[in-house]
Amino acid sequence: MKLSSGIKKYSFLLLLSVLIGCNQTVKKENQEKEVSSRVEHLPYFGDESFTPHWLEPGSQEEKAFHKIPDYELLNQLGDTITPETFDDKIYVTDFFFTSCPGICLKMMGNMQKVQEAFKEDPSVLILSHSVTPTIDSIPVLKTYADKNGIIANKWHLVTGDKQEIYNLGRNQYFVENDLGVPKDINDFLHTENFLLIDKNKHIRGIYNGLNRSSVAQLITDIKALKKE
């Protein structure tokens, strides 16, 4: 009886060892698969088709690629915001309006997740453009920022010349994907897209600001971009 009990105990320990070994092998294979599936660098985007371009950071091709041009806007503190505000910074940008009763509320909640993820990281900022700048004055933006827990100088809500904001949205950030449909200043700019901009003012990603998985990917991509 003792011998039989010993054999059973040995068999159990052997089986347990095999199972643990298999589990570790599977974990290792999954980790290797995850690493090998990642791209070395995030793609670059330069037009409204959002066709990815695989450029080498620092190359001449990258330096000549589409960049966000000069602009001058005002944030919720009344400070002037220009591209220099984001020198050596990664930033996420979108377009909204404070009186929006629809998608802006969900977009706000998801952008708050981005703010929270990088709250202590001064190299990552957020830029939200008002598409109703004549309504969204500096005091209105300040009230909106206070109400939604927006951190000053981390997340800039900006207002300014409508023509300039709409030109940035449509012709520089390409946030509306209505390919082949011409629009002018009289056509309202309304989009759920978030864009990821690198330290050299290049567009490196587009994300659905209403989708939690897409926003989670945005946060992951920001971390990857910080390593470039």
TrEMBL record:
<dbReference type="InterPro" id="IPR036249">
    <property type="entry name" value="Thioredoxin-like_sf"/>
</dbReference>
<dbReference type="InterPro" id="IPR003782">
    <property type="entry name" value="SCO1/SenC"/>
</dbReference>
<feature type="domain" description="Thioredoxin">
    <location>
        <begin position="62"/>
        <end position="227"/>
    </location>
</feature>
<protein>
    <submittedName>
        <fullName>SCO family protein</fullName>
    </submittedName>
</protein>
<dbReference type="Pfam" id="PF02630">
    <property type="entry name" value="SCO1-SenC"/>
</dbReference>
<keyword id="KW-0186">Copper</keyword>
<dbReference type="InterPro" id="IPR013766">
    <property type="entry name" value="Thioredoxin_domain"/>
</dbReference>
<comment type="similarity">
    <text>Belongs to the SCO1/2 family.</text>
</comment>
